[in-house]
Amino acid sequence: MNKCCQARDSLRAQACQTQGRMAEKLIFEYSQKGRKAHTLPDAPPVSFGLPERKGLRLPEVSEVDVTRHYTKLSQQNYGVDSGFYPLGSCTMKYNPKINEQIAACEEFAEMNPYEPERFAAGLLKILYAAEQMLCQTFGYARFTLQPAAGAHGEFTGLLIIRAYHLDRGDTQRVKILVPDAAHGTNPASCALAGFQIVTIRSLPDGGVDLNDLKKHLDNTVAGLMLTNPNTLGLFEKNILPIAELVHNAGGLLYYDGANANATLGLARPADMGFDVCHLNLHKTFATPHGGGGPGSGPVGVTTALAPYLPRPLIDFQNGKYYLNNDRPKSIGKVHSFYGNVGVILRAYAYLKIQGSAGLKRASELAVLNANYVKARLQKVYNIPYPQICQHEFVISVKEWKKQYGVSAADIAKRLMDYGYHPPTIYFPLIVPECLMIEPTETESKETLDAFCDAMLKIATEVKTNPELVKSAPHSTIIGRLDEVKAVKEPDLNYFAGA
C-alpha cells in the first residue's frame, strides 16, 4: 500500500477518534447543575396520593445541548435514505416518501383499533383492495394481512398446513422438509409450530437434490418449505417436478416469499405449485425495516386452504366491507387487531403507484443490477455459483482466509471505511466465508459502480496489506469491537457518577 493511502487512512482514523470522543458522551454527561432549557411558570402543587420519590436524577442541560446531542446521534445512524444498503436477502430498497405521507394521514394514523366497523369502512376498503392486489400478483385465492413479519408469516402458514392435515384426520404428518440453503427462520418456525425438521441437501449447482428429496417423501411429511429464488440468488429450475413429488406424497408446498423482489410480474408462486405463501411487505413493497421493524408478513393460500386462514378476514357483501369472524375452521387470531396497518398502507400505495407494469419493471431492474455487480466483481472475487443470478448473489473468500488470514467479516468491516453498509455475511451457511449482495432496483449505475470500485480496492488491500483489512474499520465512530466480549458481557446500562 502506498504512503498516500496510508496517510489518508491515518487521518481518517484520527478524525474518527476525535468524533468518537465527542460521541461517547451521553446526555447525562452534558449536565451542569442549574442549567435549563426552558423555564415554566410556577404551578400550584398537585398531590396524587403517591409516596414521594427522591433521588431522581435528570440531566440539567440547555436547549442547544439537547439539540446538538440528538442531532449527532441521528447523523451516526445509517439507512437507505443515507446510503447504499446491499444487505442480501433483506431487500433494503428505497422507500418513496409518498408512501410515508399516506400512512401518516391523520385519518389513518389517529384511528382507534376499536373503532366500530361503520366508522372504519374506508380503511377496510383499502385493506381489502391491498389483499386483492396481492392475490392477483401472487396467484392466491385469499390473503390474511395479520402476521407482523416474515417469520410470523411462516409460523402462520405452518399452522395452516397443520390444520389442513388434522382436519382430514391425517395425524401422522409431523415432518417439514427444509433445504440446507433455507432461511434460518424456516426451521425455527417449523419447531415452533410443532413439526420435526428434515434437512434436504442442495446440489453443486445450488438447486434442490431431487434424489435426496425423494428419499424423505413419505406419509409423515406435512410439507416442504422452499424459497424461490433461493438464498443463493438462484431460481429453482426443478420447481414443477418438486411440486409434483411433494403433492403426490400428500404434502403441501410452502413458499418463503422473502425473495419475491426478483419475480414480481415474471412468475407467481401459486403457478409454480406452492399452496401457501408468505410475503414481506417491508422488503418487497418498500417499507424501511432497519432496527427490527416495522414489518408485515401476509400469508396467501389456495382455495382449498382458505378456510383455515386466521380470523377475521375482511369481506365485502351487500355493498359493505366488514370483518368476518364466522370461520369455524380458522386457526384463530395471530395478531391483535388487523396486523401492522401502517405497513400495509405503505404497500398499498406502492402497489397502486407501480401497477402491474411497474412491479415487473422493478424486478427486471433488480435482477439486472445484481448481475451487473456480479459481473464486475467476479473478475477478482470467487463466485461459487457463477450462473446468471436473480436479485442477489454470493461471494466466498474461503481461499483468501487460508492465504491471507482475511475473513468475510474483515472485508465487511473494511467496507464501512468506504462509507457503505456491509452486505450480509456468513449466510447461507452452505457457503464458507460468504458475503451475500443484493443491490435492489432502486440504485443507479453510478452507485453500483462506486460500490464495485470499493470492493475491488479492498480485494487489492487483502493481497497487499491484509493487516489493514483485518483491523478495520478505521473511520467509524467506534472501531473494531471484541466481538466475543460484546456478546458475552454486554454493557447496556449507564450509572450516573460511575
Automatic annotation (TrEMBL):
Belongs to the GcvP family. C-terminal subunit subfamily. The modification N6-(pyridoxal phosphate)lysine is found at residue 283. It comes from Termititenax aidoneus. The gene is gcvPB. Its cofactor is pyridoxal 5'-phosphate. The glycine cleavage system catalyzes the degradation of glycine. The P protein binds the alpha-amino group of glycine through its pyridoxal phosphate cofactor; CO(2) is released and the remaining methylamine moiety is then transferred to the lipoamide cofactor of the H protein. GO terms for molecular function: glycine binding; glycine dehydrogenase (decarboxylating) activity; pyridoxal phosphate binding. GO terms for cellular component: cytosol; glycine cleavage complex. Residues 362-464 form the Glycine dehydrogenase C-terminal domain. Keywords: Oxidoreductase, Pyridoxal phosphate. The keyword Oxidoreductase applies. It comes from the Bacteria. It is an enzyme of class 1 (oxidoreductase). The glycine cleavage system is composed of four proteins: P, T, L and H. In this organism, the P 'protein' is a heterodimer of two subunits. The lineage of its organism: Bacteria, Bacillati, Candidatus Margulisiibacteriota, Candidatus Termititenacia, Candidatus Termititenacales. It catalyses: N(6)-[(R)-lipoyl]-L-lysyl-[glycine-cleavage complex H protein] + glycine + H(+) = N(6)-[(R)-S(8)-aminomethyldihydrolipoyl]-L-lysyl-[glycine-cleavage complex H protein] + CO2. Pfam families: GcvP2_C. One of its GO terms (biological process) is glycine decarboxylation via glycine cleavage system. This is Probable glycine dehydrogenase (decarboxylating) subunit 2.
